[in-house]
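Here we describe the complex-level prediction in full. Unlike the single-chain runs in Section 2.1, the two entities below were treated as one system.
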Amino acid sequence: VPLSKTELKNLKSLLTKKGRKKSGMFLAEGVRLLEESVRWRFLPRTVYYAPFMLSTRAEKLIRQLRGRAVETVQLSARDLRSMSDTESPQGIVGLFARPDTKLAKLYQPKHRKLVLCEDISDPGNLGTLARSSLAFGFDLMLLCGSSAEPYSPKVVRASAGAVFGLQIAVVTLKEVYAFVAQEEVTVIAADLKTEYDAKLPKRTLPKRRIVLAVGSEATGLSKGILQRADIRVRIQHLRAVESLNAAVAGSIIMKEIYDLSH
Amino acid sequence: VPLSKTELKNLKSLLTKKGRKKSGMFLAEGVRLLEESVRWRFLPRTVYYAPFMLSTRAEKLIRQLRGRAVETVQLSARDLRSMSDTESPQGIVGLFARPDTKLAKLYQPKHRKLVLCEDISDPGNLGTLARSSLAFGFDLMLLCGSSAEPYSPKVVRASAGAVFGLQIAVVTLKEVYAFVAQEEVTVIAADLKTEYDAKLPKRTLPKRRIVLAVGSEATGLSKGILQRADIRVRIQHLRAVESLNAAVAGSIIMKEIYDLSH
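The structure predicted for the assembly as a whole is:
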């Protein structure tokens, strides 16, 4: 049964923020991303594919998805391209339900390492930070301010599928303040404006629950977060550049924290 | 004097690879990038601006550029937008001559730290690596394989202006092999496929000239480069993700090398 015009229109609307908000769904396309979704057992509701565009690897993936009772729907190459966000679509797009992004639902006391992204509006940077978060053992990502939407096509792609494995909460600053006040956490601020080259204290760190706060390149972290920071770290580098890329800076500190506990 | 249609067409052509190749020129837009060009004394030939779009900061920059004998040309907002690559143009675009990218012209024996990017085709990643290179004291960047074009609008933007301060050579693999054979260098390969968690040797490193080789996320470094590597390093991380983002991985190793010599 081919898709109706309305169904296709609804799917295309998921390329926009408005459409995703309205439906509570999002799209992820390409073989690698969908393989990651399978690996994380974050299965699509439906997979759309255009048979003539598929690689052998994509065909195998579709069989695998069917084996897990995922609905698969065949489309024309033209229809499939119309719901694609990339320049060279691979003929396979998954439709997913957006997970709950409420902090109260996601946070568990067993979480040891959290990362807070404030005003990380570039989807590439946010996706990259999600990927590094998983790589360096962060359990939960909190997004506040003007941070990008976690399930937009660009973030999903830049994350290389990490959004399927990482818990992501969208929070207000007030929620952050309340959380930091209630829970026993050490807040580590990646502070690009700190004058001194602060380093992480080597021994005390791994014992406490930590929240690593990463701000935007343009303005850094807000005052409210900085005031609540127990430790401010600045990555040492030459003054040849004003600052590092936000995803690079965040990832370097994640890596340092990871090294302290491994 | 308003721009002729041909002049405007030529400028717009610089948004394409073909146009840049033909003319040997490139564009950089926005206040921050042009401020960086001034800071690095890599001045534009001409600056185009639309008066009604300018912030006070942009107006100050234009006066500064005029003070340095840079030609400034007033355009209509419409014409200026047509030569812009961004969603919210700031009303100011600089026209630059592409620097020489020949290794023989750029390499100097005093260079201590070089970074080689193989198949870094994503402009955002390449720009980010250029920025980290400057931050961590790398003197020269070599680009080979399918790496992105260093003076494309996306690379220039992602570099946050680092392309104005960093020397960048575009090389063939053959040139890389010859260079490595002739010069006294330690080749450090960021090898995502190395089985063991190799670490940098702490003491011997800073004395020799080094070439840090960074490959693509999809395929890693080519055999020819890996065979010539003196040291292979893999960044330790959880197996929750297959690999890190290439710019993050490269930057983390640059930072480790920087720390060894500071």
